[in-house]
Amino acid sequence: ANPISEWMNVVNSNEAEENINALREGYRRMEGSLPKLEDLQGAAQGLMRLQDVYHLHVEGLVRGHFQRITDGNAIDIYKPPVSDTLSGDDCFLVGKVAYDWEDYYHSVPENEGTLEDALDHLACSHFKTGNISYALSLSQELLLHDPMNSRVHFNVEKYEKLLDESPPVTNQSLDLKRPDSTYLRTRNVYEKLCQTKSSQPKHFENPRLFCDSFTNGNPGLLLQPIKRELISLHPYVVLFHSFVTRAEAKSIREYAVPGVSAFMWKHTELDIAWLKESAHGVVGKVDRRITMVTGLNVQPPYAEYLQVVNYGIGGHYEPHSDHVTSDSSPLYRLKTGNRVAMFMIYLTLDHKNSLKSLGYICSNSQKYIVWNGALFWWNLHINGQGNVDTLHAGCPVIVGDKWVANKWVHEYGQEFQRHCSLNPEE
Fold first, then answer.
1. Number of alpha helices (DSSP H) and beta strands (DSSP E) in the chain
2. Domain extents for the chain?
3. Are 47 and 313 in contact (CB under 8 A)?
4. Cis peptide before 235 (omega within 30 of 0)
5. How far apart are CA 419 and CA 416, in angstroms?
């Protein structure tokens, strides 16, 4: 009808195509830093781990409240400055990940009836255990809250079809129990430690624990001794305060970023980078400082490269020992013996529960480390046997993220630093 209007349509279409191409090119440049499916799954697992380990109230959690039910009352264990809530679709996605996560065992909350709980039950409990009829009733209830949810409609059809093909399961217990195993019994102790707010040892209760300014007889520490705190005798654990500067901690984190994922919660448990002294000058300074305070040879191959670890949403480390217990371990390919000692440096500010970096399971106690501080302990007895009391774990991070640098020192190369004993039992 109007040639000028047609001309404008052509011009606008051409500009739109140019804009779309520019958007695509921008997306390609950013694609590596955008979350992927595994990031979504890792974040969901992190939320479930927080709920499970800290016994968080599910109904409160989906409303942005980190609470635990104690004697019938909701007790806040963390109050975020901003309370975001989970939608029904969010809960469904978390529940779907829970269903696919076969190693995860979920206990059904006592309070039922909310949309979020129903979704949680549906995906994580009843359908997984074969209680299809109850899953169907919950799905139908969900449609009352969200009648346009095509995914729930699909599930209703699927459950109805399954019920037509096989009779419903009756007397299905709603409480899913963890299997009885030594590993999970250890995990229960670990979770109890994470849930308990403990404090540093009181020196007056054990006069053998002390603080001092430590030089280790090294000339490099004479003018500026290190602040040493003996916090445990069995196992032997030392805390060195202000071991690295803030600038050094920041540099180590920045050097490690290319080696870890773009998203802190990727793989959830932790992300790892290895830093060599030859590539990063600050790593050499830290290595030399470790040698000064411990007297140990920390140069490869007698020690491993500095391992930098990042913990994100729900990031944790299950109970473990650092020394290996099998002669077939790949660690022995280095031909430098077992991991005789561990030096761990804390690189981030204290966040809720991220400061609980080390919980000794066998001694049933917690050890705290502080920002820029470092922990040192022996993994092996003097006779070379593993010290079972060093079984430890990292509690899931509730808020923020946690950066830790680890230095594992091996047996060989320490012959004149850690002398043998005349007593073979030591």
1. 10, 14
2. 3-33, 37-165, 191-410
3. yes
4. yes
5. 6
Mean pLDDT, consecutive 10-residue stretches, the chain (426 aa), reads: 80 88 92 82 87 87 88 86 86 82 45 44 48 72 72 79 67 51 69 70 69 94 94 89 93 84 46 83 94 95 92 83 85 89 85 44 58 91 91 84 91 90 86
Q: Contact at 8 Å (CB) between 194 and 54?
A: yes
Question: DSSP assignment, residue 122?
Answer: I
| Token pair in block for residue 386 | 């593993």
Q: Indicate the pairing of strand 402-410 with strand 226-232.
A: unpaired
As a whole number of angstroms, the distance between CA 178 and CA 180 comes to: 6
**What fold is seen in the domain 191-410?**
Jelly Rolls (2.60.120)
3 state SS of 182: helix
Cα-based torsion angle of the residue sequence 295, 300, 301, 306 in order, rounded to the nearest 10 degrees: 90
For residue 176, the 8-state DSSP code is: P
Parallel, antiparallel or unpaired: strands 306-311 and 271-275: antiparallel
Cis peptide before 330 (omega within 30 of 0): no
C-alpha distances in Å from residue 359, one per residue of 177, 189, 199, 274, 421: 24, 10, 12, 24, 29
Nearest to 302 by CA among 416, 385, 420, 414: 414
Does the predicted model carry a pTM greater than 0.85? no
- Calculate ∠ Cα 422-424-425, nearest 5°: 125
Phi first, then psi, for residue 401 (nearest 5°) are -135, 160
Which architecture, in CATH terms, is 37-165? Alpha Horseshoe (1.25)
